[in-house]
Design brief:
The chain has helices spanning 16-24, 44-51, 74-85, 95-101, 108-141; strands at 4-9, 29-34, 62-64, 87-88, 104-105. By secondary structure, the chain is an alpha/beta fold. The chain binds glutathione (GSH).
Length: 142
């Protein structure tokens, strides 16, 4: 049976946390990196992949599981990876034991806290990107 395959652009953006989570969970995966187009247009390989209808909602990152299931949306993929890695018990929470016993907190409130931190970092990243794009637009205008 084929292993996991994570599809994303060759960039450290939305899909990077999924790569890191798979590595932290010690889940073997193929890191499929599609070329990033620097012109703003879709690269040929991404256009082809998108046209195949495989990427959920026409976006990356997406994960192909060994069973051939294809979850999309980086947050959903993160939660899936954490659950696949197993549960960590509250008393074991330190780096060594979390890595060996799973990334998903057993306690549902702890899981909500982990999801809260995930979503907050997404908000922060989106704000940074927005400000970066605004700065770039202003620079172009001169
Ligand atoms: N909410 C989605 C956003 C995904 C997203 O915006 N993906 C972008 C790359 S970062 C994409 O696939 N862009 C190519 C396109 O839409 O054609 C997530 O967190 O996964």
């Amino acid at each position: 049976m084929a292993g996991y395959k994570l599809y994303y652009f060759d960039a450290r953006a939305k899909g990077e946390k999924c790569r890191l989570a798979l590595a932290a969970a010690k889940i073997d995966f193929e890191d499929v990196r599609l070329k990033v187009s620097l012109t703003g247009e879709e690269s040929e390989e991404w256009a082809k992949e998108k046209a195949s209808g495989r990427p959920p909602l026409g976006q990356m990152p997406f994960l192909v599981t060994p069973e051939g299931k294809i979850p999309g949306q980086s947050g959903a993929i993160m939660k899936y990876i954490c659950r696949q890695s197993g549960q960590s018990k509250p008393r074991e929470r330190n780096f060594d034991t979390v890595y060996s016993s799973g990334l998903c907190p057993e306690d549902s409130f702890d899981e909500a806290l982990a999801n809260m931190i995930h979503d907050a970092t997404d908000d922060l990243r989106n704000a940074v990107i927005k400000s970066f794009l605004r700065k770039t637009r202003l620079k172009r205008r001169g």
